[in-house]
Known about the structure:
This protein is mainly α. Helix 1 crosses helix 4 and helix 2 runs antiparallel to helix 4. The chain has one domain: MazG-like (Helix Hairpins). Helix content is 69%, strand content 0%. The mean pLDDT is 96. The N and C termini lie far apart (48 Å). The protein contains 6 helices and no strands.
Amino acid sequence: xxxxxxxxxxxxxxxxxxxxxxxxxxxxxxxxxxxxxxxxxxxxxxxxxxxxxxxxxxxxxxxxxxxxxxxxxxxxxxxxxxxxxxxxxxxxxxxxxxxxxxxxxxxxxxxxxxxxx
Length: 117
């Protein structure tokens, strides 16, 4: 089976929402709020864990985390679709911008923000 493209997944999500008459609820405002809510649900899985525990989740917890990541991804794709944003191009552009803001020779090993160096 060929790999699913972002565009194909977005089409599937459009069809899924349309079949349930949910598109009326999928405004950029609502989708961005849903995205943040799902991100908070992801954070709950890691709250109170040590660094090591967060890297080696039990299988059941890992599955729950995968579902939360999927929810975040779905809402992000829907939001990008509604705003006509090409996420791959946007990410590529942002990576280029970050490379300028955070040159490796200046920031290697540092967590400082670009305004701090």
